[in-house]
Design goal:
The protein has about 240 residues and is mainly α. It has 11 helices and 4 strands; from the N terminus they run H-H-H-H-H-H-H-H-H-E-H-E-E-E-H. The protein starts with a helix and ends with a helix.
Length: about 240
């Protein structure tokens, strides 16, 4: 959803357009999205398709509308006016997500936006948060590295080694077990933005690729008496 805000702020990078072009479905092919992106170029790609031209015009109108709104009003417009809520419902059904949890996260996001008067102000805050998160991750990794004077030797011992996803970077094992691979844990339920989900996805990839021969992904059917859903990263990895 953050990509909608970036476009509204004038950041017409191809990456931002790709993230939202079919959320909800607009039937626009990725190959038609140029770098740098422009609506005029996209219209030229579909100049013989009146239906697609109308869809593209509507999308451009929506982006311009978002630029005029406060972040709180904008997120409601994205959900209701643009139809992002329909996309969310499809994701909930397809990935068997917990509806209350998903909409709970959305409500948290909406409430956090109330204190911002314009989209650019919120994007600056998000950028600062993202940089801080990267800095914290870097420090955690370095602290762990200092405590382990010789990780490569430890990996060769005939024993079980327990690592965080950050801490296992650079290591390899014959067999790797990753536990709690369920929604709410991986990705963490506080990861609301696309950039945060992408960071969680990157860490999962790091952990999975530590296995040389066997990889075991384990998730519980229930946590604290509540049903859980398998992490979306498992289906994305096609394992």
């Amino acid at each position: 959803m953050a990509a909608y805000f970036k476009l509204a702020a004038g950041k017409y990078d191809r990456e931002n357009v790709v993230r939202i072009i079919n959320k909800p479905v607009r039937y626009v092919k990725r190959a038609m999205i140029t770098q740098p992106f422009s609506f005029e170029a996209l219209r030229c790609s579909y100049e013989d398709n009146q239906n697609m031209l109308e869809i593209i015009n509507d999308m451009q109108f929506d982006i311009k509308m978002l630029a005029k709104l406060t972040p709180y009003a904008a997120v409601n417009y994205i959900l209701k006016g643009i139809g992002y809520e329909d996309y969310i419902e499809e994701e909930i059904t397809a990935k068997r997500l917990n509806r209350e949890e998903v909409y709970g996260k959305l409500e948290e996001l909406k409430q956090s936006l109330r204190k911002y008067t314009d989209i650019k102000q919120w994007l600056i805050y998000i950028h600062e948060q993202s940089e801080e998160q990267k800095h914290q991750s870097y420090n955690k990794y370095n602290n762990h590295d200092r405590k382990k004077t010789n990780k490569s030797d430890a990996a060769q011992h005939d024993a079980i080694n327990i690592y965080t996803m950050h801490g296992c970077k650079g290591l390899e094992f014959k067999a790797v077990f990753i536990t709690d691979v369920c929604e709410g844990i991986i990705p963490y339920n506080k990861a609301l933005l696309d950039s945060q989900i992408e960071e969680e996805r990157r860490l999962m990839y790091v952990a999975m690729t530590r296995a040389k021969e066997k990889l075991y992904l384990v998730y519980p059917k229930k946590r604290y008496g509540q049903d859980t859903a398998m992490s979306r990263f498992i289906s994305e990895a096609s394992v």
